Amino acid sequence: MKIALVSTPWPLFNRPSIQLATLKAYLREHLPGAQVHAHHFYLSIAAGLGYGLYTEISESTRLSEIPYAALLFPELGEEMERLWRRATRGTKEAGDMALSQVRRALERESLRALESVAWDGFDLVGLSICLGQLTSSLYFIREIKRLAPGSRVVVGGSSCAGELGRSLMTAFPAIDHVIFGEGERPMLHLAREAASGKSVPSPFPGLLSPGDPVSPQGSSQVEDPDTLPMPDFDDYFSTLQSLPHEKAFHPRIPMEMSRGCWWRGADPDGERGCAFCNLNLQWSGYRHKSPARVAGELEILSEKYGTLSFSFMDNLLPAQGLGETCRLIRELDRDFRLFAEIRATTPRRTLLAMRRAGIRHVQVGIEALSTGLLRKLRKGTSTIANLEIMKHCETPEAPDLSANLILEFPSSDEKDVAQTLRNLDFALPFRPLKPVSFWLGFESPVWRHPARFGIRRTGNHPLYRHLFPGPVLGRLTLMTQGYHGGRRRQRRLWQPVREKTAKWDKEYRRLHQSPGSEPILSYVDGRDFLLIRHRRPGRFHMTHRLRGTSREIYLFCGTRRTLDRILSRFPGLGEERLLPFVRMMVEKRLMFREGSRVLSLAVRSR
Ligand code: SF4
Known about the structure:
The protein is built from 23 helices and 24 strands. By secondary structure, the protein is of the alpha/beta class. α5 (66-72) packs parallel to α8 (134-147) and α7 (99-115) crosses α8. It is globular and about 85 Å long. The model has no long low-confidence stretch (mean pLDDT 95).
Protein backbone atom coordinates (compact mmCIF):
# COMPACT_ATOMS: atom_id res chain seq x y z
CA MET A 1 0.00 0.00 0.00
CA LYS A 2 1.43 3.32 -1.09
CA ILE A 3 -0.33 6.55 -0.17
CA ALA A 4 0.53 10.13 -1.18
CA LEU A 5 -0.72 12.94 1.03
CA VAL A 6 -0.64 16.36 -0.58
CA SER A 7 -0.87 19.94 0.61
CA THR A 8 -0.89 22.65 -2.07
CA PRO A 9 -0.46 26.45 -1.79
CA TRP A 10 -1.34 28.64 0.20
CA PRO A 11 -0.66 27.61 3.81
CA LEU A 12 2.08 29.60 5.61
CA PHE A 13 5.26 28.26 3.99
CA ASN A 14 7.30 28.23 7.23
CA ARG A 15 4.97 25.73 8.92
CA PRO A 16 4.55 22.04 8.06
CA SER A 17 1.02 20.75 7.64
CA ILE A 18 -0.45 19.40 10.88
CA GLN A 19 -3.11 17.63 8.81
CA LEU A 20 -0.56 15.69 6.76
CA ALA A 21 1.67 14.99 9.75
CA THR A 22 -1.08 13.53 11.97
CA LEU A 23 -2.66 11.54 9.14
CA LYS A 24 0.64 10.11 8.00
CA ALA A 25 1.54 9.00 11.54
CA TYR A 26 -1.91 7.48 12.06
CA LEU A 27 -1.91 5.54 8.78
CA ARG A 28 1.58 4.20 9.37
CA GLU A 29 0.62 3.03 12.85
CA HIS A 30 -2.53 1.24 11.68
CA LEU A 31 -1.26 -0.04 8.33
CA PRO A 32 2.09 -1.64 9.10
CA GLY A 33 4.20 -1.84 5.97
CA ALA A 34 2.32 0.93 4.17
CA GLN A 35 4.39 3.65 2.57
CA VAL A 36 2.96 7.10 3.24
CA HIS A 37 4.56 10.15 1.63
CA ALA A 38 3.57 13.66 2.68
CA HIS A 39 4.15 16.19 -0.12
CA HIS A 40 4.29 19.77 1.12
CA PHE A 41 4.22 21.23 -2.37
CA TYR A 42 3.49 24.67 -1.00
CA LEU A 43 6.98 24.82 0.47
CA SER A 44 8.91 24.14 -2.75
CA ILE A 45 6.53 26.43 -4.66
CA ALA A 46 7.03 29.23 -2.09
CA ALA A 47 10.79 28.86 -2.48
CA GLY A 48 10.51 28.97 -6.28
CA LEU A 49 8.12 31.90 -6.34
CA GLY A 50 9.97 33.91 -3.67
CA TYR A 51 8.91 33.96 -0.03
CA GLY A 52 7.85 37.63 -0.15
CA LEU A 53 5.36 37.19 -2.98
CA TYR A 54 4.15 33.84 -1.62
CA THR A 55 3.51 35.37 1.80
CA GLU A 56 1.53 38.28 0.37
CA ILE A 57 -0.73 35.91 -1.53
CA SER A 58 -1.04 33.38 1.29
CA GLU A 59 -2.04 36.03 3.83
CA SER A 60 -4.89 37.37 1.72
CA THR A 61 -8.07 35.33 1.35
CA ARG A 62 -9.03 37.66 -1.53
CA LEU A 63 -5.86 36.86 -3.47
CA SER A 64 -5.14 33.24 -2.73
CA GLU A 65 -7.77 31.59 -4.92
CA ILE A 66 -7.08 33.75 -8.00
CA PRO A 67 -3.77 32.49 -9.49
CA TYR A 68 -4.69 28.79 -9.69
CA ALA A 69 -8.21 29.66 -10.88
CA ALA A 70 -6.45 31.43 -13.77
CA LEU A 71 -4.59 28.18 -14.52
CA LEU A 72 -7.75 26.11 -14.29
CA PHE A 73 -10.00 28.39 -16.35
CA PRO A 74 -7.86 30.44 -18.76
CA GLU A 75 -11.03 31.51 -20.58
CA LEU A 76 -11.76 33.80 -17.59
CA GLY A 77 -8.26 35.28 -17.79
CA GLU A 78 -9.18 38.92 -18.55
CA GLU A 79 -11.78 39.10 -15.83
CA MET A 80 -9.36 37.58 -13.32
CA GLU A 81 -6.60 39.97 -14.39
CA ARG A 82 -8.91 42.89 -13.47
CA LEU A 83 -9.78 41.25 -10.17
CA TRP A 84 -6.08 40.68 -9.44
CA ARG A 85 -5.25 44.34 -10.09
CA ARG A 86 -8.00 45.45 -7.69
CA ALA A 87 -7.09 42.94 -4.99
CA THR A 88 -3.33 43.63 -5.08
CA ARG A 89 -3.64 47.40 -4.54
CA GLY A 90 -1.35 48.44 -1.71
CA THR A 91 0.67 45.19 -1.71
CA LYS A 92 4.47 45.32 -1.98
CA GLU A 93 5.28 42.63 -4.54
CA ALA A 94 2.06 41.22 -5.96
CA GLY A 95 0.88 44.66 -7.07
CA ASP A 96 3.95 45.00 -9.31
CA MET A 97 3.14 41.84 -11.20
CA ALA A 98 0.48 41.04 -13.76
CA LEU A 99 -1.57 37.95 -12.96
CA SER A 100 -0.25 36.35 -16.17
CA GLN A 101 3.32 36.62 -14.78
CA VAL A 102 2.35 35.06 -11.46
CA ARG A 103 0.39 32.35 -13.28
CA ARG A 104 3.37 31.41 -15.46
CA ALA A 105 5.72 31.27 -12.47
CA LEU A 106 3.25 29.14 -10.54
CA GLU A 107 2.70 26.79 -13.44
CA ARG A 108 6.44 26.29 -13.83
CA GLU A 109 6.97 25.60 -10.12
CA SER A 110 3.87 23.43 -9.77
CA LEU A 111 4.76 21.25 -12.76
CA ARG A 112 8.30 20.87 -11.49
CA ALA A 113 6.91 19.69 -8.14
CA LEU A 114 4.31 17.42 -9.74
CA GLU A 115 6.76 15.82 -12.17
CA SER A 116 9.15 14.93 -9.36
CA VAL A 117 6.69 12.26 -8.19
CA ALA A 118 5.81 8.94 -9.88
CA TRP A 119 2.06 9.26 -9.35
CA ASP A 120 1.10 5.94 -10.92
CA GLY A 121 2.90 4.15 -8.10
CA PHE A 122 0.34 5.28 -5.51
CA ASP A 123 -2.81 3.39 -4.51
CA LEU A 124 -4.36 6.53 -3.02
CA VAL A 125 -3.69 10.24 -3.31
CA GLY A 126 -5.18 12.36 -0.50
CA LEU A 127 -5.37 16.15 -0.55
CA SER A 128 -6.04 18.28 2.50
CA ILE A 129 -8.09 21.32 1.42
CA CYS A 130 -8.37 24.14 3.93
CA LEU A 131 -8.94 27.89 3.61
CA GLY A 132 -7.34 29.33 0.45
CA GLN A 133 -6.40 25.91 -0.97
CA LEU A 134 -9.43 25.16 -3.14
CA THR A 135 -8.30 26.19 -6.63
CA SER A 136 -4.69 25.08 -6.08
CA SER A 137 -5.93 21.63 -4.99
CA LEU A 138 -8.24 21.39 -8.00
CA TYR A 139 -5.33 22.28 -10.28
CA PHE A 140 -3.11 19.61 -8.69
CA ILE A 141 -5.87 17.01 -8.94
CA ARG A 142 -6.29 17.78 -12.64
CA GLU A 143 -2.55 17.46 -13.25
CA ILE A 144 -2.14 14.30 -11.15
CA LYS A 145 -4.92 12.67 -13.19
CA ARG A 146 -3.20 13.83 -16.40
CA LEU A 147 0.11 12.30 -15.31
CA ALA A 148 -1.47 9.14 -13.90
CA PRO A 149 -5.06 8.74 -15.15
CA GLY A 150 -5.70 5.73 -12.90
CA SER A 151 -4.99 7.64 -9.66
CA ARG A 152 -7.60 7.42 -6.95
CA VAL A 153 -8.06 10.87 -5.44
CA VAL A 154 -9.59 11.56 -2.03
CA VAL A 155 -10.07 15.05 -0.59
CA GLY A 156 -10.72 16.18 2.98
CA GLY A 157 -10.19 19.15 5.28
CA SER A 158 -12.27 22.09 6.45
CA SER A 159 -13.25 23.11 2.88
CA CYS A 160 -14.76 19.66 2.26
CA ALA A 161 -17.08 19.37 5.26
CA GLY A 162 -20.67 18.30 4.56
CA GLU A 163 -22.34 20.00 1.63
CA LEU A 164 -19.09 21.70 0.58
CA GLY A 165 -17.41 18.36 -0.10
CA ARG A 166 -20.46 16.82 -1.70
CA SER A 167 -20.75 19.70 -4.13
CA LEU A 168 -17.03 19.44 -4.97
CA MET A 169 -17.48 15.82 -5.96
CA THR A 170 -20.44 16.73 -8.17
CA ALA A 171 -18.64 19.61 -9.90
CA PHE A 172 -15.26 17.87 -10.30
CA PRO A 173 -15.60 14.20 -11.25
CA ALA A 174 -11.80 13.80 -10.97
CA ILE A 175 -12.41 13.61 -7.21
CA ASP A 176 -13.12 9.97 -6.36
CA HIS A 177 -13.88 10.25 -2.63
CA VAL A 178 -14.58 12.97 -0.11
CA ILE A 179 -13.93 12.75 3.62
CA PHE A 180 -16.25 14.82 5.79
CA GLY A 181 -14.83 15.76 9.13
CA GLU A 182 -11.79 14.22 10.72
CA GLY A 183 -9.58 12.29 8.30
CA GLU A 184 -7.96 9.51 10.26
CA ARG A 185 -10.62 6.80 10.50
CA PRO A 186 -12.31 7.25 7.08
CA MET A 187 -8.91 7.37 5.35
CA LEU A 188 -7.79 4.21 7.15
CA HIS A 189 -11.00 2.46 6.06
CA LEU A 190 -10.48 3.57 2.47
CA ALA A 191 -6.86 2.42 2.49
CA ARG A 192 -7.77 -0.99 3.95
CA GLU A 193 -10.50 -1.49 1.35
CA ALA A 194 -8.11 -0.43 -1.43
CA ALA A 195 -5.48 -2.84 -0.09
CA SER A 196 -8.00 -5.67 -0.28
CA GLY A 197 -8.61 -4.84 -3.93
CA LYS A 198 -12.00 -3.10 -3.66
CA SER A 199 -12.40 -0.26 -6.15
CA VAL A 200 -15.63 0.86 -4.41
CA PRO A 201 -15.24 0.86 -0.62
CA SER A 202 -18.03 -0.30 1.66
CA PRO A 203 -19.95 2.61 3.27
CA PHE A 204 -18.25 4.24 6.22
CA PRO A 205 -19.31 7.27 8.28
CA GLY A 206 -17.56 10.40 7.03
CA LEU A 207 -16.60 8.91 3.66
CA LEU A 208 -18.42 9.77 0.44
CA SER A 209 -17.79 7.64 -2.65
CA PRO A 210 -19.46 7.58 -6.05
CA GLY A 211 -22.92 6.04 -5.84
CA ASP A 212 -23.27 6.70 -2.12
CA PRO A 213 -26.57 8.17 -0.93
CA VAL A 214 -26.70 11.96 -1.22
CA SER A 215 -27.83 12.41 2.38
CA PRO A 216 -25.19 13.21 5.01
CA GLN A 217 -23.42 10.20 6.48
CA GLY A 218 -22.17 11.71 9.72
CA SER A 219 -18.54 11.51 10.64
CA SER A 220 -16.18 9.18 12.40
CA GLN A 221 -13.74 10.58 14.93
CA VAL A 222 -10.85 9.47 17.09
CA GLU A 223 -12.44 9.44 20.55
CA ASP A 224 -9.37 10.04 22.68
CA PRO A 225 -6.73 12.30 21.10
CA ASP A 226 -4.14 10.95 23.56
CA THR A 227 -4.23 7.73 21.52
CA LEU A 228 -3.00 9.51 18.38
CA PRO A 229 0.61 8.80 17.45
CA MET A 230 3.20 11.62 17.40
CA PRO A 231 2.77 13.73 14.26
CA ASP A 232 5.40 12.98 11.63
CA PHE A 233 6.93 16.09 10.02
CA ASP A 234 9.92 14.31 8.43
CA ASP A 235 8.85 14.93 4.83
CA TYR A 236 8.53 18.70 5.36
CA PHE A 237 12.00 18.83 6.89
CA SER A 238 13.54 16.80 4.06
CA THR A 239 11.94 19.17 1.48
CA LEU A 240 13.33 22.09 3.47
CA GLN A 241 16.81 20.54 3.48
CA SER A 242 16.68 20.01 -0.26
CA LEU A 243 16.21 23.76 -0.90
CA PRO A 244 19.21 25.90 -1.88
CA HIS A 245 21.15 27.30 1.03
CA GLU A 246 19.85 30.87 0.58
CA LYS A 247 16.25 29.62 0.87
CA ALA A 248 16.82 28.00 4.27
CA PHE A 249 14.84 29.22 7.31
CA HIS A 250 13.85 28.03 10.73
CA PRO A 251 10.32 26.60 10.67
CA ARG A 252 7.56 26.86 13.26
CA ILE A 253 5.88 23.53 14.09
CA PRO A 254 2.10 23.26 14.46
CA MET A 255 0.66 21.25 17.34
CA GLU A 256 -2.82 20.27 18.52
CA MET A 257 -3.96 20.27 22.15
CA SER A 258 -7.60 19.80 21.20
CA ARG A 259 -10.13 19.44 18.40
CA GLY A 260 -13.37 21.39 18.23
CA CYS A 261 -14.34 24.26 20.53
CA TRP A 262 -15.43 23.88 24.16
CA TRP A 263 -17.28 27.20 24.04
CA ARG A 264 -19.46 25.87 21.26
CA GLY A 265 -19.46 22.20 22.31
CA ALA A 266 -21.65 19.80 20.33
CA ASP A 267 -24.03 22.06 18.44
CA PRO A 268 -26.09 20.38 15.76
CA ASP A 269 -28.53 23.31 15.41
CA GLY A 270 -26.12 26.24 15.28
CA GLU A 271 -27.54 27.60 18.53
CA ARG A 272 -24.30 27.72 20.49
CA GLY A 273 -20.88 29.27 20.06
CA CYS A 274 -19.99 32.54 18.36
CA ALA A 275 -22.57 33.64 15.80
CA PHE A 276 -20.06 34.31 13.01
CA CYS A 277 -17.97 31.17 13.43
CA ASN A 278 -17.76 28.18 11.12
CA LEU A 279 -14.40 26.90 12.31
CA ASN A 280 -15.80 23.63 13.57
CA LEU A 281 -17.46 22.18 10.51
CA GLN A 282 -15.25 19.11 10.44
CA TRP A 283 -15.61 18.26 14.12
CA SER A 284 -18.44 17.04 16.21
CA GLY A 285 -18.10 17.96 19.88
CA TYR A 286 -14.90 18.72 21.73
CA ARG A 287 -11.92 16.58 22.73
CA HIS A 288 -8.56 17.51 24.19
CA LYS A 289 -5.25 15.87 25.00
CA SER A 290 -4.12 15.44 28.59
CA PRO A 291 -1.55 17.90 30.00
CA ALA A 292 1.07 15.11 30.23
CA ARG A 293 0.56 14.20 26.58
CA VAL A 294 0.85 17.83 25.42
CA ALA A 295 4.07 18.43 27.35
CA GLY A 296 5.48 15.05 26.27
CA GLU A 297 4.68 15.76 22.62
CA LEU A 298 6.31 19.17 22.81
CA GLU A 299 9.43 17.65 24.32
CA ILE A 300 9.72 14.89 21.74
CA LEU A 301 9.06 17.14 18.72
CA SER A 302 11.43 19.81 20.02
CA GLU A 303 14.22 17.26 20.42
CA LYS A 304 13.55 15.50 17.14
CA TYR A 305 13.39 18.62 14.97
CA GLY A 306 15.72 20.87 16.96
CA THR A 307 13.23 23.71 17.31
CA LEU A 308 11.59 25.72 20.06
CA SER A 309 8.98 27.52 17.93
CA PHE A 310 5.53 25.95 18.00
CA SER A 311 2.01 27.15 17.22
CA PHE A 312 -0.96 25.49 18.88
CA MET A 313 -3.50 25.17 16.09
CA ASP A 314 -6.50 24.76 18.40
CA ASN A 315 -9.47 27.06 17.84
CA LEU A 316 -8.92 27.91 21.47
CA LEU A 317 -6.86 26.30 24.23
CA PRO A 318 -8.62 23.88 26.57
CA ALA A 319 -9.96 25.58 29.70
CA GLN A 320 -9.60 22.39 31.69
CA GLY A 321 -6.10 21.46 32.78
CA LEU A 322 -4.42 24.44 31.11
CA GLY A 323 -2.64 25.48 34.30
CA GLU A 324 -1.26 21.94 34.68
CA THR A 325 -0.21 21.87 31.01
CA CYS A 326 1.68 25.16 31.47
CA ARG A 327 3.34 23.83 34.61
CA LEU A 328 4.53 20.67 32.85
CA ILE A 329 5.81 22.65 29.85
CA ARG A 330 7.66 24.99 32.18
CA GLU A 331 9.30 22.03 33.89
CA LEU A 332 10.84 21.08 30.55
CA ASP A 333 12.99 24.17 31.15
CA ARG A 334 13.38 25.26 27.51
CA ASP A 335 13.14 28.68 25.93
CA PHE A 336 10.03 27.90 23.94
CA ARG A 337 8.44 30.41 21.56
CA LEU A 338 4.80 29.33 21.59
CA PHE A 339 1.64 30.76 20.07
CA ALA A 340 -1.97 29.97 20.99
CA GLU A 341 -5.55 31.20 20.60
CA ILE A 342 -7.56 31.88 23.74
CA ARG A 343 -10.86 33.33 24.93
CA ALA A 344 -11.03 36.86 26.31
CA THR A 345 -12.28 35.48 29.62
CA THR A 346 -8.89 33.83 30.35
CA PRO A 347 -7.92 34.98 33.87
CA ARG A 348 -4.69 36.82 34.64
CA ARG A 349 -3.16 33.96 36.62
CA THR A 350 -3.55 31.70 33.56
CA LEU A 351 -2.01 34.35 31.30
CA LEU A 352 0.99 34.55 33.61
CA ALA A 353 1.31 30.75 33.72
CA MET A 354 1.14 30.67 29.91
CA ARG A 355 3.89 33.26 29.56
CA ARG A 356 6.10 31.39 32.04
CA ALA A 357 5.61 28.24 29.94
CA GLY A 358 6.82 30.10 26.83
CA ILE A 359 3.50 31.18 25.25
CA ARG A 360 4.71 34.55 24.06
CA HIS A 361 1.94 35.49 21.71
CA VAL A 362 -1.81 34.92 21.89
CA GLN A 363 -4.68 35.61 19.51
CA VAL A 364 -7.59 36.57 21.75
CA GLY A 365 -11.29 36.38 20.84
CA ILE A 366 -12.06 40.05 21.59
CA GLU A 367 -14.09 40.83 18.42
CA ALA A 368 -15.98 43.86 19.81
CA LEU A 369 -15.88 46.68 22.36
CA SER A 370 -19.63 47.02 22.76
CA THR A 371 -21.35 44.64 25.16
CA GLY A 372 -24.58 44.89 23.15
CA LEU A 373 -22.75 43.76 20.04
CA LEU A 374 -20.86 41.06 21.94
CA ARG A 375 -24.26 39.64 22.91
CA LYS A 376 -25.31 39.56 19.26
CA LEU A 377 -22.00 37.87 18.44
CA ARG A 378 -22.64 35.38 21.28
CA LYS A 379 -19.06 35.81 22.49
CA GLY A 380 -19.93 35.20 26.14
CA THR A 381 -17.74 38.12 27.15
CA SER A 382 -18.20 41.84 27.84
CA THR A 383 -16.38 45.08 27.08
CA ILE A 384 -14.93 45.24 30.59
CA ALA A 385 -13.61 41.66 30.33
CA ASN A 386 -12.11 42.47 26.92
CA LEU A 387 -10.41 45.60 28.23
CA GLU A 388 -9.10 43.62 31.17
CA ILE A 389 -7.30 41.03 29.06
CA MET A 390 -5.99 43.76 26.75
CA LYS A 391 -4.58 45.51 29.80
CA HIS A 392 -2.98 42.36 31.29
CA CYS A 393 -1.32 41.57 27.95
CA GLU A 394 0.33 45.00 28.02
CA THR A 395 2.71 43.76 30.72
CA PRO A 396 5.88 41.74 30.03
CA GLU A 397 4.68 38.99 32.42
CA ALA A 398 1.82 38.05 30.04
CA PRO A 399 1.85 37.05 26.36
CA ASP A 400 1.61 39.71 23.62
CA LEU A 401 -1.91 40.06 22.32
CA SER A 402 -3.35 40.16 18.81
CA ALA A 403 -7.08 40.44 18.30
CA ASN A 404 -9.71 41.50 15.80
CA LEU A 405 -12.50 44.03 15.92
CA ILE A 406 -15.40 42.85 13.78
CA LEU A 407 -17.02 45.65 11.77
CA GLU A 408 -20.27 45.57 9.80
CA PHE A 409 -21.78 42.59 11.60
CA PRO A 410 -25.33 42.15 10.25
CA SER A 411 -27.88 43.50 12.75
CA SER A 412 -25.32 45.81 14.41
CA ASP A 413 -26.79 49.30 14.82
CA GLU A 414 -26.06 52.93 15.74
CA LYS A 415 -26.02 52.07 19.44
CA ASP A 416 -23.36 49.37 18.96
CA VAL A 417 -21.22 51.77 16.96
CA ALA A 418 -21.65 54.62 19.49
CA GLN A 419 -20.68 52.25 22.34
CA THR A 420 -17.65 51.06 20.40
CA LEU A 421 -16.49 54.62 19.71
CA ARG A 422 -16.87 55.55 23.37
CA ASN A 423 -15.14 52.44 24.66
CA LEU A 424 -12.28 52.76 22.18
CA ASP A 425 -11.16 55.81 24.20
CA PHE A 426 -10.48 53.47 27.12
CA ALA A 427 -8.66 50.93 24.93
CA LEU A 428 -6.17 53.41 23.45
CA PRO A 429 -3.35 52.57 25.93
CA PHE A 430 -3.42 48.92 24.80
CA ARG A 431 -2.30 47.06 21.69
CA PRO A 432 -4.58 48.10 18.82
CA LEU A 433 -7.18 45.66 17.53
CA LYS A 434 -7.23 44.78 13.85
CA PRO A 435 -10.45 45.91 12.19
CA VAL A 436 -11.93 43.16 10.00
CA SER A 437 -15.14 43.34 8.02
CA PHE A 438 -17.62 40.60 8.79
CA TRP A 439 -17.73 37.77 6.26
CA LEU A 440 -20.42 35.14 6.13
CA GLY A 441 -19.14 31.59 6.64
CA PHE A 442 -21.08 28.62 5.32
CA GLU A 443 -22.91 26.83 8.16
CA SER A 444 -22.07 29.53 10.72
CA PRO A 445 -24.98 30.33 13.08
CA VAL A 446 -25.64 33.58 11.15
CA TRP A 447 -25.80 31.61 7.90
CA ARG A 448 -28.14 29.05 9.48
CA HIS A 449 -30.50 31.68 10.88
CA PRO A 450 -30.19 34.62 8.46
CA ALA A 451 -33.55 36.24 9.30
CA ARG A 452 -32.47 36.76 12.93
CA PHE A 453 -29.66 38.95 11.65
CA GLY A 454 -31.63 40.86 9.02
CA ILE A 455 -30.18 38.83 6.15
CA ARG A 456 -32.56 38.25 3.25
CA ARG A 457 -30.69 35.99 0.87
CA THR A 458 -27.45 33.99 0.88
CA GLY A 459 -25.40 32.23 -1.78
CA ASN A 460 -21.79 31.72 -2.84
CA HIS A 461 -19.78 34.93 -2.46
CA PRO A 462 -19.86 37.05 -5.66
CA LEU A 463 -16.05 36.88 -5.86
CA TYR A 464 -16.34 33.26 -7.00
CA ARG A 465 -18.16 34.41 -10.14
CA HIS A 466 -14.83 35.67 -11.42
CA LEU A 467 -13.05 32.42 -10.55
CA PHE A 468 -15.33 29.66 -11.84
CA PRO A 469 -17.30 29.41 -15.10
CA GLY A 470 -21.07 29.69 -14.48
CA PRO A 471 -21.98 26.01 -15.01
CA VAL A 472 -19.24 24.87 -12.59
CA LEU A 473 -20.13 27.46 -9.97
CA GLY A 474 -23.78 26.48 -10.25
CA ARG A 475 -22.91 23.06 -8.82
CA LEU A 476 -20.66 24.30 -6.04
CA THR A 477 -21.39 25.30 -2.45
CA LEU A 478 -18.44 27.25 -1.11
CA MET A 479 -17.03 28.30 2.24
CA THR A 480 -17.36 32.08 1.85
CA GLN A 481 -20.94 33.15 1.34
CA GLY A 482 -22.42 36.37 0.06
CA TYR A 483 -25.67 37.88 1.34
CA HIS A 484 -28.22 40.63 0.86
CA GLY A 485 -29.36 42.72 3.80
CA GLY A 486 -28.12 46.17 4.83
CA ARG A 487 -24.51 45.84 3.69
CA ARG A 488 -24.20 49.41 2.42
CA ARG A 489 -25.70 50.78 5.61
CA GLN A 490 -23.29 48.72 7.70
CA ARG A 491 -20.29 50.04 5.78
CA ARG A 492 -21.46 53.63 6.36
CA LEU A 493 -22.21 53.01 10.05
CA TRP A 494 -18.79 51.56 10.84
CA GLN A 495 -16.67 54.06 8.90
CA PRO A 496 -15.91 56.23 12.00
CA VAL A 497 -14.67 53.13 13.83
CA ARG A 498 -12.46 52.23 10.91
CA GLU A 499 -10.95 55.74 11.02
CA LYS A 500 -10.51 55.74 14.78
CA THR A 501 -8.75 52.34 14.81
CA ALA A 502 -6.36 53.52 12.06
CA LYS A 503 -5.44 56.53 14.23
CA TRP A 504 -5.09 54.31 17.30
CA ASP A 505 -2.69 52.03 15.45
CA LYS A 506 -0.58 54.98 14.29
CA GLU A 507 -0.36 56.59 17.73
CA TYR A 508 0.38 53.34 19.52
CA ARG A 509 3.26 52.66 17.13
CA ARG A 510 4.56 56.18 17.59
CA LEU A 511 4.57 55.83 21.37
CA HIS A 512 6.32 52.47 21.17
CA GLN A 513 8.86 53.23 18.48
CA SER A 514 11.85 53.26 20.80
CA PRO A 515 12.77 49.81 22.10
CA GLY A 516 11.73 49.12 25.68
CA SER A 517 9.13 51.93 25.71
CA GLU A 518 6.99 52.07 28.83
CA PRO A 519 3.29 51.16 28.62
CA ILE A 520 1.13 54.13 27.60
CA LEU A 521 -0.80 54.06 30.87
CA SER A 522 1.25 52.79 33.80
CA TYR A 523 1.79 53.30 37.51
CA VAL A 524 4.60 53.08 40.01
CA ASP A 525 3.80 52.31 43.63
CA GLY A 526 5.32 54.34 46.49
CA ARG A 527 3.57 52.15 49.15
CA ASP A 528 1.39 54.95 50.56
CA PHE A 529 0.94 56.76 47.27
CA LEU A 530 0.67 55.77 43.63
CA LEU A 531 1.88 57.70 40.58
CA ILE A 532 -0.06 57.05 37.38
CA ARG A 533 1.65 58.15 34.21
CA HIS A 534 -0.22 58.68 30.96
CA ARG A 535 1.97 59.06 27.88
CA ARG A 536 0.31 61.10 25.12
CA PRO A 537 1.49 61.53 21.53
CA GLY A 538 2.81 65.01 20.80
CA ARG A 539 1.75 66.35 24.22
CA PHE A 540 3.10 66.52 27.76
CA HIS A 541 2.70 63.26 29.63
CA MET A 542 0.17 63.49 32.44
CA THR A 543 0.89 62.26 35.97
CA HIS A 544 -1.78 61.59 38.61
CA ARG A 545 -1.09 60.90 42.28
CA LEU A 546 -3.37 58.69 44.42
CA ARG A 547 -2.95 58.45 48.17
CA GLY A 548 -4.31 56.27 50.99
CA THR A 549 -7.65 54.58 50.27
CA SER A 550 -7.74 55.93 46.70
CA ARG A 551 -4.47 54.11 46.01
CA GLU A 552 -5.80 50.93 47.64
CA ILE A 553 -9.03 51.00 45.64
CA TYR A 554 -7.09 51.52 42.42
CA LEU A 555 -4.85 48.54 43.17
CA PHE A 556 -7.82 46.40 44.28
CA CYS A 557 -9.51 47.06 40.91
CA GLY A 558 -6.49 45.75 38.98
CA THR A 559 -8.91 43.00 37.97
CA ARG A 560 -12.56 43.95 37.47
CA ARG A 561 -14.58 44.27 40.68
CA THR A 562 -18.19 45.00 41.47
CA LEU A 563 -19.02 48.10 43.51
CA ASP A 564 -20.41 45.84 46.25
CA ARG A 565 -17.13 43.95 46.41
CA ILE A 566 -15.19 47.20 46.73
CA LEU A 567 -17.52 48.40 49.48
CA SER A 568 -17.17 45.16 51.43
CA ARG A 569 -13.36 45.31 51.04
CA PHE A 570 -13.31 48.89 52.37
CA PRO A 571 -16.09 48.85 55.02
CA GLY A 572 -15.70 52.45 56.18
CA LEU A 573 -15.93 53.88 52.66
CA GLY A 574 -19.63 54.12 51.76
CA GLU A 575 -21.17 54.72 48.32
CA GLU A 576 -21.18 58.48 48.83
CA ARG A 577 -17.36 58.50 48.68
CA LEU A 578 -16.79 55.59 46.30
CA LEU A 579 -19.07 56.70 43.45
CA PRO A 580 -17.60 60.22 43.01
CA PHE A 581 -14.10 58.72 43.07
CA VAL A 582 -14.97 56.17 40.39
CA ARG A 583 -16.72 58.87 38.32
CA MET A 584 -13.66 61.09 38.44
CA MET A 585 -11.32 58.23 37.51
CA VAL A 586 -13.57 57.23 34.60
CA GLU A 587 -13.68 60.84 33.34
CA LYS A 588 -9.87 60.82 33.32
CA ARG A 589 -9.90 57.46 31.49
CA LEU A 590 -7.89 55.90 34.31
CA MET A 591 -10.67 53.46 35.17
CA PHE A 592 -13.47 51.86 33.15
CA ARG A 593 -16.94 51.27 34.53
CA GLU A 594 -19.55 48.99 33.02
CA GLY A 595 -22.75 48.76 35.07
CA SER A 596 -21.73 47.79 38.56
CA ARG A 597 -18.23 46.65 37.60
CA VAL A 598 -15.08 48.73 37.66
CA LEU A 599 -11.57 48.16 36.29
CA SER A 600 -8.35 50.14 36.80
CA LEU A 601 -6.62 50.59 33.45
CA ALA A 602 -3.00 51.41 34.31
CA VAL A 603 -0.47 48.56 34.44
CA ARG A 604 2.40 48.38 36.90
CA SER A 605 5.71 49.59 35.56
CA ARG A 606 8.77 48.29 37.40
S1 SF4 B 1 -14.83 31.84 17.32
FE1 SF4 B 1 -13.57 30.51 18.58
S2 SF4 B 1 -14.64 30.45 20.58
FE2 SF4 B 1 -16.10 31.20 19.08
S3 SF4 B 1 -17.23 29.35 18.43
FE3 SF4 B 1 -15.54 29.72 16.97
S4 SF4 B 1 -13.87 28.47 17.71
FE4 SF4 B 1 -15.34 28.68 19.40
